[in-house]
Design a protein that fits this description.
mainly alpha, elongated, 0% strand, 63 residues, 76% helix, 3 helices
């Protein structure tokens, strides 16, 4: 078995964070507003950081 490429791992983590974020916000009205709840804040923060990292990686690939 070959090891996953770093970009593949980043994409998988990004998609997992997206799933976690959408599942949480679907049941948490507070997280739909500007101030997320205590449980949702780290979930949304992780998603935002991974989204930024993935977009940065994609922009480097297009150069």
């Amino acid at each position: 078995m070959t090891a996953a490429r770093p970009a593949d791992d980043l994409f998988v983590r990004y998609m997992k964070a997206f799933k976690d974020s959408t599942e949480h916000t679907a049941t948490c009205p507070a997280c739909l507003g500007e101030t997320p709840c205590a449980e949702g804040a780290p979930i949304l923060d992780r998603f935002a950081k991974l989204q930024d990292a993935y977009r940065k990686h994609q922009s480097k690939q297009q150069r």
